[in-house]
Amino acid sequence: MSDRNKKAVVLLSGGLDSATAMAMAADEGFEVYAMSFNYGQRHSAELDCASEQANKTAKEHKVVEIDLRAFGGSALTDDIEVPKHNSTDDLSDEIPVTYVPARNTIFLSYALAWAEVLGADDVFIGVNALDYSGYPDCRPEFIEAFEAMANLATVVGVQGRKLTIHTPLIALTKAEIIKRGLELGVDYAKTTSCYDPAPDGRSCGHCDSCLLRRKGFSDIGETDPRKYVGERNE
Prior knowledge:
7 helices; Rossmann fold; single chain; 5-stranded parallel beta sheet; alpha/beta
């Protein structure tokens, strides 16, 4: 099979990073099968963005329903306040309460299952180990370990075909991610990064994710097209 005919499952949250990762997969010639999750997250507005992005790029888009609120333990899935700050300088090196226990392990497991059914040997995930919130399941060591497990746990792996988990953003700054996405035509107005959006979907502007996103745009001299609470240009 030629590269131009390869299938890839892309984990698509509706955020900036995953939209860029999907655009990069398509640019590399993969036929994109996007997978999103309605997992009880308080920022479920991201699913609307995921749908818009997938409609533009993906061959198929699945939204999987799981309820991680059953476990809680995160500000995204439990009655825990999302931390707010005024600057990225205020962000701590500690793992924040917005970390959802085992989330990427769960998401990649679903992606692995769909990839095996599709006959796809490639999975893309937009994790990042530089400008991120310190989540343990965004590290290269985790991805390498999961890929090794995946090739032991599947029929295709046992038969000698190798599943590859692509992390095209893992060593990029947020500014570099945005720059690459703009080159590929990603419409960032149709992405959201906010952990605690307003009821109308506008971003809070002060959670870790909003701050890192806005700094990324600022670093390359671009204006973030996302609407934020309290801005005059809403």
